[in-house]
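During the no-cost extension, the postdoctoral fellow (Dr. R.K.) reprocessed legacy sequence entries with the updated structure-token encoder. One reprocessed record is reproduced below for audit purposes.
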Amino acid sequence: MLARVRSTVGRAATVAGAVVLTGGLGTDAVTLPGAAATVVTAGVGLAVNPKVWRAPASVRWTAISLFAAPHAGCAVLLVGERLAPDTGVSLLVQAAAAALWTGATWLLRPGLTARQFVDEALAQELAEAQKVEEEPPVEPPAPTYDSPQARWWGERIAIEGGAAPGTVLLEHRQVSEQCLALIIGAQERGQPVEITKPGLSAELDLPEELIDIGPVPGRGVGVRLLVLGQRPVAEAGPGDSDAEVWAEIAATAMPGVELIEANTYEMPKELT
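Re-encoded structure tokens follow.
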């Protein structure tokens, strides 16, 4: 019902505009009142069509321009009729312009076109919003690990809130049945490795004095050496000192690391 009323009013406004333009061909007295009436009509039309001026920001001014185009065109033609020279050819041109405005406005119905344009924009925004809601969140790819020990470290120790967040297990070596040496690196280059002894002690149920965190010779603080458990005691014998045993281990896993002392301790099964 409301759409029919708007359609009738639009048709009536088109006819009124055509009458005003025709009157402007014969007298200049119609120009100012006609132009003022055109502006008022445009304002009233926008006021009773809130859908147009409440349209999404991306299409609002386009819709308003479509709606106001025939009113602006009518006002421009009225002013042109007043300024045009009073000759036969000029009169024919003005009459053709008025007829063109009337036909275009009657056929194209800019007010209806503007409302339809807004409806399409709203429908598109609604469809995009629903699509975003329906799409499942993209989860980051699961990390890959080179060994079960690296997986255990990444899922238990290197997690946020863990004993060593943002780190990875680069290398590990079973020094003895009671001792394990690990090389820990930062996930992001340029970040230092930070391992909290209390947190690691609680996670492994290992006394803090059996957790040793130190540098890796020749490397920065983005890589650290972690020794867990009691270090092995080498049996007495020529060429079999603790330092030599440790040097043999370090040659393959941690070059340049010295053995400071040796003890024995039962290692948690997750790291063995």
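Residues 236-242, 257-265 have pLDDT under 50 and may be disordered. The two ends are 81 Å apart (CA to CA). The remaining legacy entries will be reprocessed before the final report is submitted.
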